[in-house]
């Protein structure tokens, strides 16, 4: 888990992920800070007719998906009287985690999903967390359980994730769900939200995957690894570039599709990118920005200003994969409620 982009998101987080990537940390973002107003986002249909790179607008796709979910939630409530429910367990008071949990809650409200929240103090015991999980496991109004990561270091993440009933594992982090994702001829009950959001963006932008070369940068349990499995299920030829890969830029330059999830700001430069490649940037990295009220801004793993010149399409940060992650969480919660109530 150490190389997960999730854990490097916050400027409160202590250590950078991987050693090989560390020498890129000093790269600074190019001076112009791009703004992604909806006005310069091309409509999806225009993508194939224009040769300059397109912004893959995750924020608006996520909004579209939330509208679809919202309609399904209403239909379900009206026909069988069931409202999907998501329980989120937050341990400790990391600011970034609290923000994410708040955003998830808001997103639930926006589509009519019930949200429950357990806020436990940093010094809680593992047993206390397990008690909450077992309460939610047994609660029929809860269709999805999410344990916000990272957990405090005194807790055993594996024990805790193993305790979530797989039928409610809307994060898709249970080893049985991951195992099924990895096996041909089997299907997991849930696909992890961030990788699922990446593939959904490729689908909705009409990017062909079958037979294409894909490179995933990063091998975390929550993004890189499941993203590589999903691409393989989509019939891409997949390579995984990681902290011990020699010549990562050369490998990455072969890719028609790049998914980067390492948590190193602006690591992927122009010379890593094959002209015309499609880039999904999962990194959400805070970098100092005196012009911003917060004192920092968020940038991806990919140097956006360089990528936009060579790639055919790129996801921005923010407004790319992040909002899709939340939309997929809502979708998984709906899928769970439909499944348990046999509602089609
Ligand atoms: N059990 C678990 N499941 C998770 O899915 C999970 C987690 N733990 N721990 C933390 C990470 C991080 N994560 C994000 C979700 C949405 C945005 C998001 O919406 N970002 C926006 C806004 C960024 C901002 O301005 O702060 C954007 O990129 O546009 C980002 C990050 C889910 N995570």
TrEMBL record:
GO terms for molecular function: methenyltetrahydrofolate cyclohydrolase activity; methylenetetrahydrofolate dehydrogenase (NADP+) activity. Residues 192-339 form the Tetrahydrofolate dehydrogenase/cyclohydrolase NAD(P)-binding domain. The keyword NADP applies. It comes from Flemingia macrophylla. Pathway: One-carbon metabolism; tetrahydrofolate interconversion. One of its GO terms (biological process) is one-carbon metabolic process. Keywords: Hydrolase, Multifunctional enzyme, NADP, One-carbon metabolism, Oxidoreductase, Photorespiration. Catalyzes the oxidation of 5,10-methylenetetrahydrofolate to 5,10-methenyltetrahydrofolate and then the hydrolysis of 5,10-methenyltetrahydrofolate to 10-formyltetrahydrofolate. HAMAP family: THF_DHG_CYH. Belongs to the tetrahydrofolate dehydrogenase/cyclohydrolase family. It catalyses: (6R)-5,10-methenyltetrahydrofolate + H2O = (6R)-10-formyltetrahydrofolate + H(+); (6R)-5,10-methylene-5,6,7,8-tetrahydrofolate + NADP(+) = (6R)-5,10-methenyltetrahydrofolate + NADPH. This is Methenyltetrahydrofolate cyclohydrolase. GO terms for cellular component: cytoplasm. Homodimer.
């Amino acid at each position: 888990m150490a190389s997960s982009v999730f854990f490097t998101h916050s400027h409160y987080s202590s250590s950078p992920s991987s050693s090989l990537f560390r020498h890129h940390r000093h790269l600074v973002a190019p001076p112009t800070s791009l703004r992604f107003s909806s006005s310069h986002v091309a409509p999806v249909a225009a993508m194939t007719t224009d040769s300059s790179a397109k912004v893959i607008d995750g924020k608006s796709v996520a909004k579209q998906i939330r509208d679809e979910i919202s309609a399904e939630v209403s239909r379900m409530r009206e026909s069988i009287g069931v409202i999907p429910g998501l329980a989120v367990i937050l341990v400790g008071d990391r600011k970034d985690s609290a923000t994410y949990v708040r955003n998830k809650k808001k997103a639930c409200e926006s589509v009519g999903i019930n949200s429950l929240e357990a806020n436990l103090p940093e010094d809680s015991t593992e047993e206390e967390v397990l008690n909450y999980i077992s309460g939610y496991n047994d609660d029929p109004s809860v269709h999805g359980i999410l344990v916000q990561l990272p957990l405090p270091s005194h807790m055993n993440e594996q024990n805790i994730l193993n305790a979530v009933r797989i039928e409610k594992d809307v994060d898709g982090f249970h080893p049985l769900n991951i195992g099924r994702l990895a096996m041909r001829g089997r299907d997991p009950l849930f696909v992890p939200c961030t990788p699922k959001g990446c593939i959904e963006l490729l689908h909705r932008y009409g990017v062909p995957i079958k037979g294409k070369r894909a490179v995933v940068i990063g091998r975390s349990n929550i993004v890189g690894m499941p993203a590589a499995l999903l691409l393989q299920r989509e019939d891409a030829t997949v390579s995984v570039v990681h902290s011990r890969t020699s010549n990562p830029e050369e490998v990455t330059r072969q890719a028609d599709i790049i998914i980067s999830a390492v948590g190193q700001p602006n690591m992927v430069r122009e010379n890593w990118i094959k002209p015309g490649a499609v880039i999904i940037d999962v990194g959400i990295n805070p970098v100092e920005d005196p012009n911003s009220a917060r004192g920092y801004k968020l940038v991806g793993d990919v140097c956006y200003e360089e990528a936009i010149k060579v790639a055919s399409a790129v996801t921005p940060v923010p407004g790319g994969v992040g909002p899709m992650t939340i939309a997929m969480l809502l979708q998984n919660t709906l899928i769970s409620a439909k499944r348990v109530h046999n509602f089609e």
